[in-house]
């Protein structure tokens, strides 16, 4: 498999999440909100799309293309793709804040969540098309077989480390919360 194979598979999952984002946005615009679905989207964009998928692109794929400018300006296109990742991250931060305020009773924050989900869906739709239709294939053409092999191993390693670290942190956090609550005296 080519190193872009797993990234493209991940794009298909991202596309499914985009449908959910648009659906949730429409629901919110009609005055309804599915809190669990919004929470799941926030978790998905944070962990799967940003930390894991963008993580692999930014730390493995993009750096391997640095300086490989021929008929295609990799330095310029990777810098633009990074800017789009940063923009998605900014919108996500706004959604997280708004969701927190909403959870604390500020119902008007639903408007911000809806608007920002729409922004992310719009940026991401173009971003995925750009990477899938031109960037990934051009990238594979300028890498040697050895570089592609190394990249595949690096991505597998990233995925394994990422999964271990993610779940280890989850268990540690739950354990810490449980240990903390068991130290507190019972209410009279
Ligand atoms: Fe990307
Ligand atoms: Fe991507």
Describe the protein in words:
This protein has helices spanning 3-29, 35-65, 74-103, 109-142, 145-183. Helices cover 86% and strands 0% of the residues. The protein is an all-alpha fold and 188 residues long. The longest helix has 39 residues, at 145-183. The chain starts with a helix and ends in a 5-residue tail after the last helix. The radius of gyration is 20 Å and the shape is globular. α1 runs antiparallel to α4 (109-142), α2 (35-65) packs antiparallel against α3 (74-103) and α3 runs antiparallel to α4 (109-142). The chain has one domain (3-183): nmb1532 protein domain like (Four Helix Bundle (Hemerythrin (Met), subunit A)), CATH 1.20.120.520. It binds fe (ii) ion (2 copies). One fe (ii) ion (FE2) is lined by residues 54, 57, 81, 85, 127, 131. The site of one fe (ii) ion (FE2) has 5 residues, from α1 and α2.
